[in-house]
Amino acid sequence: METTYRDVLAGKIDPAGLAVLDALGNEQVHAFVADAVRLCRPASVKVCDDSADDRAFIRRKALENHEEVALAADGHTLHFDGISDQGRDTRATRYLLPEGVTLGPKLAAIDRNEGLGEVRGYLAGAMDGKTMYVRFFCLGPTGSPFAISCIQCTDSAYVAHSEDLLYRPGYEQLKRLGPDGPFFRFLHSAGRLDARRTSVDVDKRRVYIDILEDMVYSVNTQYGGNTIGLKKLALRLAIRKADREGWLAEHMFLMGVGGPGDKRVTYFSGAFPSLCGKTSTAMLPGEKIVGDDIAYLRVIDGQVRAVNVESGIFGIIGNVNSHDDPVIYDVLTHPGEVIFSNILAADRRPYWDGMGVEIPDAGENFAGPWRQGTTDDAGEPVPTSHPNARYTVALQALANCDPRLNDPAGVPVAGILYGGRDSDTSVPVQQSFDWTHGVVTMGAAIESESTAATLGAAGVRKFNMMSNQDFLAIPFGKYVQNHLDFAGKVEQPPLIFATNYWLRGADGQWLNGKLDKHVWVKWMERRVHGEVDAIPSPTGLIPKFEDLAVLFTETLGQAYTEAQYVEQFSIRVAKNLEKLDRLDQHFGGMTGLPAEVGEALAAQRRRLDDLRQAKGDLVSPLDL
Ligand code: SPV
Ligand code: MN
Fold it and tell me: How many CB atoms lie within 10 A of CB 129?
């Protein structure tokens, strides 16, 4: 006789949990949960609905399981990931490739049957003696055309707890969808744990994406980027769904920028590779944050609208201090629900590098017991906190959270920022001539320069298409085509801007202050409303000096000189031509790129060549 999901769950789940599952009346859910139980063999199964009780249960379990420890402030907890489990593992992350499907040469894939055998082999019996938590969440606001239902099965109460802070509850929504309600599914096990409750078998860490089943497997890891199903694992599935349905799933923040006298709010989305200023832009003091990491964009009634997929922040904590990041610092230093990860705890208080307070002599951090001067196996000093140490909070805890965070219709997107990082090529801010020019020369051409502190050799430049390249689940050429097509359906597509906060002068000093980005954002807001003019340059439309002078005074209370303007906004013609050479090489390695890419780059080259002939390698904005 065939075994039913009830047979599989018998003895592992209480009647209340069974009733929660039954009430969905969705056989696909039953099949998914039963398969996870049969494979991972947990000792018990806890099915949670959207109730406050179940959320409290998960928080308690994270402490009881010692996956988190309570810190002194009410609601603060600390979680450690293993010393070699501190980031997204791009090498162990692969698409399970079904026969006859091609994803292009750039995407890491493994034959589906082979990959399933491997990852399901690691998951077999992985929850022995543990509880499996079954959670329902929603990507995007519930009851919205953007919404995607999700189910997470995990043996980590830390993962389940993080998701409570980062996502909207999704049980009732899935129930409303009825017997055929579709959903993304995520199965995770942290695997064997050591005394610190961190994953032991990280050499067998795998994140495998099954595009046939809209499912992601994750095993032998705890770090959020590898385990929190709804974050980067779902983004990969969403990119494919968006491709099928004609919308965009992007690695973007969403923010509301105030207009003159704060009488209007204009919404922008922005894609930046890490360490290029993404969070600090989304968190600019006085503006409103909708989201800091992932946005879905759709054309609704002829207008581009977007939602934050998430409702919380999993943010880098390094260098968060009361001076530069007052809003988030305040949340991290007052009672309220916060999960700290991979920082230093001393006397049950959290400390991290760049916090702006005195660091105690000793405590425990991501690497174990720690003292000032502790070195690792290679003799290198162990930092106070890991460079990728993070905080997890709900957006509602932030004083600057936008009131439209949960609006089912999303917010209208008036502008899109693409932020790169280079010391010598791109002006601090410019606007594209049109949608295609922006998609090709700004979005698809985001380039960032590594910094000595984080990525080894300084000054190594890397392209990162729309800063979404790590998560692309369709061929690169198709992805660019989708962007080009997206705005074809709208009368007034969002304006596209490129930023570069990282220019240096001949003496090696930064050319811009940390808060200058606030002026650039205000300038974009004025551009959207046609209130300031711009100067055409070969690479885009740049601000006029007199507008920036006014905005520097209004926004930062600072004077801005013509000499500063000239140094920052001169067109570095030779350097821009070098970037085009690098881009030609980069795109040359891709197949199926739309013809517009080559055309837009060729036109940019012609404009730069013409300017070089007429005025040389470096041209002042006053000479354009
Ligand atoms: C990023 O690396 O872009 C993050 C953190 O937002 S992770 O969850 O690891 O993706
Ligand atoms: Mn991210």
Answer: 10
- Cβ of 314 below 6 Å from ligand 1: yes
Those residues whose C-beta lies under 8 Å from the C-beta of residue 114, and which sit 6 or more positions away, are: none
Q: Where in the chain is the domain with CATH 2.170.8.10?
A: 314-397
Report how far residue 284's alpha carbon sits from residue 517's, in angstroms, rounded to the nearest whole number: 9
Token digits of residue 1: 């006789």
**Cα 225 to ligand 1 centroid, rounded to whole Å:** 5
- The fold of the 314-397 domain, in CATH, is Phosphoenolpyruvate Carboxykinase; domain 2 (2.170.8)
Give the start-end residues of each E strand in 317-436.
Answer: 338-341, 344-346, 349-351, 362-365, 368-371, 390-394, 411-420, 429-431
| CATH class (in words) of the domain with range 249-311+405-623 | alpha beta
| pLDDT tens, position by position, 401-413 | 999 999 999 999 9
Measuring from atom 3 of ligand 1, which residue has the nearest CA? Answer: 274
Cβ-contact 323, 372 below 8 angstroms: no
**CATH 3.10.20.120 holds for 5-67+88-245:** no
**Ligand 1 pocket member 49 (CB < 6 A):** no
CA of 93: how far to CAs of 247, 394, 480, 565, in Å? 25, 27, 22, 45
Span 1-19, pLDDT tens digits: 678 899 999 999 999 999 9
- Kindly give the number of the ligand 1 atom that is closest to the alpha carbon of 390: 5
Does ligand 1 lie within 6 Å of residue 28's CB atom? no
pTM: 0.97
* Ligand 1 neighbourhood includes 88 CB (under 6 angstroms): yes
Note the helical H segments in 78-198: 112-123, 157-166, 171-177
Each residue's pLDDT tens digit, 32-69 = 999 999 999 999 999 999 999 999 999 999 999 999 99
Q: Which of 162, 227, 232 to mutate to test the pocket of ligand 1 (most atoms within 8 A of CB)?
A: 232
Residues 6 or more apart in contact with residue 35 via CB below 8 angstroms: none
Q: Which of 231, 393, 448 to mutate to test the pocket of ligand 1 (most atoms within 8 A of CB)?
A: 231
Does residue 140's CB lie within 6 angstroms of at least one atom of ligand 1? no
Dist. CA 565 → ligand 2 center (Å): 32
